[in-house]
Amino acid sequence: MAIRKAEPYKIKMVEPIKLIPRKERDKKIKEVGYNQFALKAEDIYIDLLTDSGTGAMSDYQWAGIMMGDESYAGSRNYYNLEKSVQDIIGYKYFVPTHQGRGAENVLFPIMIKEKGQYVLSNMHFDTTKAHVELKGGRAVNLVIEEAFDTETEHPFKGNFDLGKLEGFIKEKGVENCAFIIVTITCNSVGGQPVSMENIKGVKKIADQYGLKVIFDAARFAENAYFIKKREVGYENKQIVDIIREMFSYGDGLTMSAKKDGIVNMGGMIAIKEDEELYTISRSMVVPIEGFPTYGGLTGRDMEALARGLREVVEEDYLESRIGQIEYLGQRLIDAGIPIQRPVGGHAVFVDCKKFCPQIPYNQFPAQAVCVELYKEAGVRAVEIGSFLLGRDPETGEQLESPMELLRLTIPRRVYTYNHMDVVADALIEIWKKRETLKGFEFTYEPEVLRHFTAKLKPIE
User: Fold this and answer.
1) If you average pLDDT over residues 273-297, what whole number do you get?
2) Confidence of residue 310 (pLDDT cuts 50, 70, 90)
3) Which of 94, 125, 220, 349 is catalytic?
4) Is 37 a catalytic residue?
5) Which of 9, 60, 72, 452 is catalytic?
C-alpha cells in the first residue's frame, strides 16, 4: 500500500471556521445576486475562490514581518527582495508592485505601441486580458487543442501551438504584434503546465520575428515542479535550476506574488537585461504604484515575499501542495465527475459542459454548479467559463468559452485532507442531482471584468 507523506510543516495557529445552516446559505447567495464574490467571508465554510493571497505564511515569513523597514526610499527589505529575485529568477532588474495587475498596468502600456496590436499568449487570464484591452491591445490565445479536451491526459496542456503562433505572426504581420505572454502555469485551461521544450520553441519564434517574451509568472514554481516530474531530462535537476532555465528564455515577467510568492499581497515586474525597458518601467511605477523601492508595498510585505520566494522552491513543499490537489481530483474522478485531466497545479477544474449539459453556455453552467456547491456545503469556488470570458469588445455579443469550468482553488498551507473530503462529498451529492440544475441570467452587468460584481438570477 502506498504511504501518504504528511505535510512538511506543523500547525502553530488556527482560525475558527463555521458552517452556517442551509436555509441561511440559500438566503445569503440570493441576497448577493448569486455571485460568490459578493458573499461575506464569515459566511463561507471552506473558501476555494482563489489561491491568490489566501495562503498561510511560515514562521520565518512572520518573523520577517517584524523586521519591516518602512523607509519611503531605499528600504533594506527592497534589497533583500532584489537578492531573492536575482538568486531564484536570474533576472538583473526588478520593480515591486502591489500585485500582478499593478505590474500589468505599468508594463503593458509601454509594450503596446499602437492601438489594435495583438498580444499573443497560450491563454490570457481574465485580468491580463482586461489590461491588454484597456491599453488598446487585442488578446489572442494560441494554446494547443488538447487543452480543451478534459479527458485527454496530455502532460503539458498549457503549451503554445507553435504552428499557430508563427502562422498568426505571418498572417497579421509582426508590426501588428506587440509581444508574447507565456502564462505559467496556464490557469484558464486548468492550471496546466508549459514544457521547457515548448518555452524554448516560443523563444525561437520570438527571436526570429524580433518580439519580446514576457512571462505571466504567478505560478512559476508549480510549473517547474511539473517539468521535473513530467519532462525527460529534468527528473534529476533542482527546482531552482529549472526555474532559472525557464526564465532564461524570456525577456521579462509580471508576477502576482500572491500565488507562488506565498504572501497575502505583492507583485513585481522583473526584466532580464533590457536596461531601457527597466528604466521606463521604473519611472512609470512612480505615478501608478509608488516609489520604485516600494512600489505599493510596505517594507514588511517585501520581506515576507523575499522569504516566500525562497520557500516556494523547496521540493517537499511543492510535492505536498500538488499532492493535496491530486487527492481531491482523484476523489472526483473515482466518483465519475468529469474534470480537467491530468490535475493541474493549484486547483481542480470540473468540466461543467459535461456536468450539466442541459445548461447552454450563455446561461453559465459552471456558475450554476458554483452556486449549488455553496448551498450544499458552504464551499465557495469560482466559474472559469463564459461568465468570466464576457462579451466581444467590438460587437457586444456574448462570447462562448471553449470550456465551462468550475475551479476549486486550493490555498497554500491552509486546509487539510479532511477539508478536501468535505468538498468532494458535496460535489458528489450535486452530481447525483445534476439534471435539476438551471442556468442564470443577468440583473446587473458591468462592462469590465463583470464576473467580480455582476448580479444574476436563476432562469425559471
Assistant:
1) 95
2) very high
3) 125
4) no
5) 72
Structural domain harbouring 176:
59-311
Given a cut of 90, is residue 324 above it in pLDDT? yes
Question: Is 160 among the catalytic positions?
Answer: no
Out of 47, 126, 260, 351, pick the active-site residue.
126
Q: Specify whether 259 is catalytic.
A: yes
Asked if residues 148 and 403 have their Cβ atoms less than 8 Å apart, the reply is yes
Residue 280, SS3? helix
Active site residue 237: no
Share of the chain above pLDDT 70, in %: 99
Mean of the per-residue pLDDT values for the chain?
Answer: 95
248/272 same-domain check: yes
Helix (H) / strand (E) element for 183: namely strand 177-183
Q: Are residues 176 and 299 in the same domain?
A: yes
Answer yes or no: do 411 and 298 share one domain.
no
Residue of 98, 135, 419, 451 marked active site:
451
Is 451 noted as a catalytic residue in this protein?
A: yes
Q: Tell me, what amino acid is at 287? A: P
CA distance 187 to 47: 18
96 and 47 within one domain: no
Q: Is 92 assigned a catalytic role?
A: no
Domain count for the chain, please give it: 2
Verify whether residue 241 is a known catalytic residue.
Answer: no
CATH of the domain at 213: 3.40.640.10
**List 103, 178, 218, 426, catalytic entry:** 218
Q: From the centroid of its chain, how far is CA 307?
A: 21
Q: Would the pTM of this model clear 0.85, i.e. be above it?
A: yes
The helix or strand, by DSSP H or E, that contains position 77, with its residue range, turns out to be helix 76-88
- Of 287, 311, 335, at which residue does a domain stop? 311
DSSP 3-state of 456: strand
Q: Is the pLDDT of residue 7 over 60?
A: yes
- Residue 2: band (very low, low, confident or very high) from pLDDT cuts 50, 70, 90: low
Residue 13 is assigned to a structural domain of this protein: no
